[in-house]
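Quarterly update from the structural biology core.
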Amino acid sequence: MTPTFRILIGLAAIMGADGVILAALSAHQADAARLAAASSMLLFHSSAVLAVVALAERGVVHLKIGIAAAFGFVVASTLFAGDLSLRQFAGHSLFPFAAPTGGTLLILSWLTLLVAAAWPRRK
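Predicted structure, tokenized:
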């Protein structure tokens, strides 16, 4: 297993842990819909990162494009969830349009994974 895969697995683990923490906080705070959305984004995409690592390692998807998609999931989920969490706890945004930027990057990461799956493998 490459160091890049290990880094992605570690980042997915952090995303998963943060997703559970945000889910717990959303269950105990009034008007915490933002935290629930942030939690879901982190939990869903931590699993996606792990899936991409498994697919790339087995050669099912194009290695470099798959890795780009996985890092895209990490960055975009963190941006999206970070912005929503900051709004909940600090009352302001990370920067203007941070959550929509994260959401757009998530869509692009999914489309990147599509390209990785469609790209022919080198023999």
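The mean pLDDT is 95.
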